[in-house]
Structure to design on (243 residues):
């Protein structure tokens, strides 16, 4: 079975719809979302409703938890805090209630799914081989998939070797048949790897392969929505740089 993996939508309807349209051109049987449907972007309700319609599995991320009130805003940057407070004010209560039903991880599949990491599903940014090594020690699955960092990455530990990792670009494909893996599909709604296109990953559970994909979307439309909502300009500007 092939599965589409998406993460970190962040209220960016334009990017999410573009990714869903791209997924529809593949034979992916299900879409799995690793969380952070809301935060930063200006269309949280639209993104939650798209996830409710299309995602077979959906996790909760730290921004989702902030909007539901389950996580303090003290740990957030100023821009993220402003966006979370605004999102709390404007979201439909039924969608907030649905966010409250989500978990930060799912260990009931053939691969482990976490918003942030197997060690800390809410907060840990896995951006180095050292942290990946610690996560590989902690994880219960040979292959785990994480989001949160907004950077498309793969880490592998082959038998008797230390973990190594590298960034992943659109079109990259890996054979996962050997070794232990920690994979990040990148961010749909706010990439931070220098590529402003929306990111997602196609996982083939039978062939044991992963392919990273990038999709153009209406960045100007997403930026205009952020500015119309009077959210910080920096949240709009960064979309144009993939940072």
């Amino acid at each position: 079975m092939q599965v589409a993996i998406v993460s970190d939508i962040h209220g960016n309807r334009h990017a999410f719809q573009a990714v869903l349209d791209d997924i529809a051109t593949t034979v992916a049987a299900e879409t799995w979302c690793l969380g952070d449907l809301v935060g930063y972007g200006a269309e949280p309700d639209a993104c939650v409703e798209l996830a409710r319609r299309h995602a077979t599995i959906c996790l909760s991320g730290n921004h989702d938890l902030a909007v539901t009130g389950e996580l303090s805003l003290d740990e957030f940057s100023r821009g993220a805090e402003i966006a979370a407070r605004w999102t709390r004010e404007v979201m439909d209560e039924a969608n907030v209630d649905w966010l409250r039903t989500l978990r930060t991880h799912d260990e009931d599949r053939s691969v482990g799914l976490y918003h942030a990491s197997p060690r800390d599903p809410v907060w840990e940014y896995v951006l180095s081989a050292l942290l990946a090594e610690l996560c590989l020690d902690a994880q219960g699955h040979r292959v785990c998939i994480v989001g949160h960092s907004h950077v498309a990455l793969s880490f592998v530990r082959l038998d008797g070797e230390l973990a190594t990792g590298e960034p992943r670009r659109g079109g990259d494909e890996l054979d996962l048949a050997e070794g232990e893996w920690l994979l990040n599909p990148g961010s749909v709604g706010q990439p931070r790897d220098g590529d402003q296109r929306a990111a997602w990953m196609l996982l083939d559970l039978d062939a044991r392969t992963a392919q990273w994909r990038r999709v153009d979307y209406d960045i100007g439309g997403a930026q205009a929505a952020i500015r119309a909502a009077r959210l910080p300009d920096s949240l709009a500007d960064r979309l144009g740089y993939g940072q």
User: Anything to note?
Assistant: The chain has one domain: 2-240. The first strand starts at residue 2 and ends at 6. The CA atoms of residues 185 and 200 lie 5 Å apart.
